[in-house]
Amino acid sequence: MLERLRERIRGAAARGAPLRLRGGGSKDFYGGDPRGEVLDTREHAGIVDYEPTELVVTARCGTPLAELEGALAAQGQMLAFEPPHYGAGATLGGCVAAGLSGPRRAAAGALRDFVLGVRLLDGRARELGFGGRVMKNVAGYDVSRLLAGSLGTLGLILEVSLKVLPRPAAERTLRFELPQDKAIESLNRWAGMPLPLSASAWRDGELAVRLSGAERAVQAAAQKLGGEALDAASAERFWSGIREQSDPFFAGEAPLWRLSVPSAAAPLELAGELLIEWGGALRWLRSGADTATVRGAAARAGGHATLFRGGDKAAGVFAPLAPALLRLHRELKAAFDPAGVFNPGRLHPDF
Amino acid sequence: MGEALPVATRERQRAVAQALRAFLPERSVLWQEEDTRPYECDGLTAYRQVPMVVALPETEAQVQQILRACHALGVPVVPRGAGTGLSGGALPPGDGVLLSLAKFMRIVRVDPVARIAVVQPGVRNLAISDAAAPFGLYYAPDPSSQIACTIGGNVAENSGGVHCLKYGLTVHNVLRVRGYTMDGEPLDLGSEALDAPGLDLLALIVGSEGMLAVTTEITVKLLPKPPAARVIMASFDDVQKAGDAVAAVIAAGIIPAGLEMMDRPATRAVEEFVGAGYDLEATAILLCESDGLPEEVEAEIAKVKEVFERAGATRLTASRDEAERLRFWSGRKAAFPAVGRISPDYYCMDSTVPRARIGEVLRFIGELEKKYGLRCPNVFHAGDGNLHPLILFDANDADELRRTEEFAGEVMEKCVTVGGTITGEHGVGVEKIDQMCVQFSDAELAQFHAVKRAFDPAGLLNPGKAVPTLARCAEFGHRHVHAAAAPAHPGLPRF
To answer: How many angstroms away from the CA of B190 is the closest CA of chain A?
Structure first.
């Protein structure tokens, strides 16, 4: 199997024919339009090593994310960054390459925070391993985390080791009626207090927050915050709708912008529908506003905007990079994939 | 000591000092040996080199000018914070400039609403938490040197501490880094938002041992201070049982705030030094801390107690108040200096292994103690599997030093064999550079060099650290095989 993948890469490099690395295709919509011959990663699948007391799981790129999460759940553990699947076929490789995190991100950390090690095939079809299967490891540059969110532009991720965490003993979701500015203010104030907040979502005057942890801690925090408690099944449905973007907010044709801003940033002056996550740090916008307007508002708030779904990708999916950073990106791309084989244009139009 | 510099070096020294004096005041450029000698080593004192010139900039513009000047002259630059590093990462260049960030001591801003602190790299780790304390916030990573070590050094080394199983390492707690590449180009990585466009270069810079860029401003996350914390001290009559108890805590779904182990030689050294109240009869003791809301802590402490009892603890004590909690920790925090009292020198290792292999590695270390005739107490971050074996030796005895290095080499290689790493938090520096050849293939090392070249094509920033050349590995492999194959010549000089 591995040899076949290497052959494909060697052949593509020799012919100068780019490859489009693809697992289940659940994130085809994300980033620049995919180009090149499809290299399907799904055959290289399976959990390689999972010892719950080590809090580490190692699996191959083609492993279905659902299978992986199922195996963890059977042991009372989870991927704490709650990666969105965006479809039944999502694979681990695609999940890491996309680098996206779900509702628990502000509390638990991002996908890249849980990456402990990777094995990859670079643009010369060399198999390389970085990081490892232990919690603390500072030997060599942290190439594993660099691959998280690289959209497959640096190499074919073969295998990933991730830190996992125990599932919280108890969870509770509370609802509050609050206008946007008050919701942002409350979320930031609460985040500065020792409360077991694990997710938040505001939309249309209604704020939902999730508490996770020991039963007594969740109880005490719920008492302190007040609000209206949601029953467990509705809460589960609600957070899944946010995580998987199956919530009605995400339906329809209007372009979906992802604005990543400092959590305490004041409400942005942008026309459109808004959904706020991550304690104020992630703002989803459904809007036909032009790219410059959206990017400008995000930048003024100290963040950046991504055209996540729909809209006109011609003006750039991701916020442009400063010249010094762009130079480093080009150099790194050349260092990993000199022939420019992997996923051209997916992360940046130039490479 | 005090030997005269060769004429060529002296001329080079004059030229470089002069170039720097064109934009730096007199007090910011040191070149006389009495002034540069204090910078000859960091926390790893076995390696020393007086730098040719020391530069002490006070502004970002000066840092940029220094880098530009050195880049133009082809002069190596080694950045340095407080010099507390344990792997020789700030070992100066004999033919270059030691760039001290010691004067970058300003806490630029603490924002209690956004829960961030913007600080200069020379700010001490603990000073950040002190500045955040009035708002009920703190900076989580707490390396044991936190009263002295700087945040710039923490970023370079991706420092951990006793609480990183629950709260993460430096990389998990830094939002943004500003600085310069070797050619003086400004860099701004990350942001006050939770992510930034493009590749995650912030993750790459953290832990890069000062080889990719010089940082001049760092934005860190602040966390609400947990209102309650208690620690349980548990004794075990067997190291393996203690190791199993660690796994049992994790299996019970608990992520403790800290989970530390010390073996008997370590507790004995510590007890004489600080009187922390440790059980001297125990073969190993575990310290397990729980923090959070009071309700949470009570529940967790009860659960941990139960787990330890089932794992065969011979004695259990939970701290009743803050004073007792701090006393229990005082021994662990004083472990290195305490060991320093019972031996002229000690060599601190830093490997990480899967938790399940802790017992096996400790037994292996026990065998090596006999093989090399050297003592080796163990203190470590058991929750992370991060070991700190301390080999006791006398640096004035050349043979003991040689045996110590071989001992350490064998331990690191064993740790790689069982699926671990040669360094968990102290960095490779100059100290563990040969063992990088064991942990990584030639292709992987070449890839590290390629990453380095992307940031520093001239190879002038902290050269020769962390990533060995392939030629060096070839030589190491040769020596290595030779040493193993020819034990009949233990007196043979080795490099």
So the answer is: 10
Cβ–Cβ of A51/B354 closer than 8 Å? yes
Instruction: CATH number for A170-243: choose from 2.40.128, 3.60.70, 3.30.70, 3.40.50.
Output: 3.30.70
Q: What is the pLDDT of residue B488?
A: 36
Predicted confidence (pLDDT) at residue B41 exceeds the cutoff of 90: yes
Q: Are A337 and A123 in contact (CB under 8 A)?
A: yes
Topology of domain A2-166+326-336, CATH: 3.30.465
Please give the pLDDT value at position B477.
82
Nearest to A24 by CA among A82, A66, A58: A66
Q: What residues contact residue A231 under an 8 Å CB cut-off, 6+ apart?
A: none
Phi, psi for residue A129 in degrees, rounded to 5:
-125, 135
Which chain A residue is nearest to residue B427, measuring alpha carbons? A138
Q: Determine contact, residues B143/B154, Cβ cutoff 8 Å.
A: yes
Give yes or no for A12 touching B (CB within 8 A). Answer: no
Please state the rounded mean pLDDT for residues B84-100: 95
What CA–CA distance (Å, rounded) separates A132 from A116? 6
Judged by CB atoms closer than 8 Å, whether chains meet at A194 and B224 is answered as yes
Q: Which of B143, B361, B405, B393 is nearest to B263 (CA)?
A: B361
Q: Which B residues, 196 through 225, put their C-beta within 8 Å of a C-beta on chain A?
A: 196-201, 203-204, 206-208, 212, 224-225
Partner residues linked to B378 by β-bridges: B389
CA distance B40 to chain A (A): 24
Report CB contact under 8 Å: B158, A261: no
- pLDDT classification of B295: cutoffs 50, 70, 90: confident
Closest partner CB to B293 (pick from A112, A135, A217) = A217
Contact across the interface for B250 and A347, Cβ inside 8 Å: no
CB pairs under 8 A between A and B: 264
pLDDT tens profile B401-437: 999 999 999 999 999 999 999 999 999 999 999 999 9
Q: Is A246 exposed, middle or buried (0-12, 13-18, 19+ CB in 10 A)?
A: middle
User: What whole-number percentage of chain B has pLDDT above 70?
Assistant: 96
B45 falls in which pLDDT band (50, 70, 90)?
Answer: confident
**Cα-Cα-Cα-Cα dihedral sign, residues B266, B268, B269, B273:** positive
> pTM here?
0.96
Q: Is B454 close to A55, i.e. CB distance below 8 A?
A: no
Mean pLDDT (chain B) is: 93
* Average pLDDT, 10 consecutive residues per value, chain A (351 residues): 95 96 98 96 97 96 98 98 97 98 98 98 98 95 98 98 96 98 98 97 98 93 96 98 98 97 97 98 97 98 98 95 97 98 96 94
Alpha helix stretches (DSSP H) within chain A: 2-15, 65-74, 92-98, 105-108, 111-114, 143-147, 180-191, 215-225, 232-243, 291-300, 323-336
The answer to whether B77 and B104 have CB atoms below 8 angstroms apart is no
A193 contacts in chain B (CB < 8 Å):
136, 224
Q: For residue B293, which residues of chain A lie inside 8 Å, CB to CB?
A: 194, 196, 216-217, 220-221
Average pLDDT over residues B179-198: 98
Share of chain A above pLDDT 90, in %: 99
Separation in Å, CA A62 to CA A4, A127, A146, A260, B207: 15, 17, 20, 29, 30
Reported as a single tens digit per residue, the pLDDT across B346-362 is 999 999 999 889 889 99
Looking at the complex, report in whole angstroms how far the Cα of residue A203 sits from the nearest Cα belonging to chain B: 20
The pLDDT of residue B491 = 36
Residues of chain B numbered 391-420 and touching chain A (CB < 8 Å): 419-420
Handedness of CA B55, B62, B44, B450 (dihedral sign): negative
**CA geometry: angle B78, B83, B87, nearest 5 deg:** 80
**Is A276 in CB contact (< 8 Å) with chain B?**
no
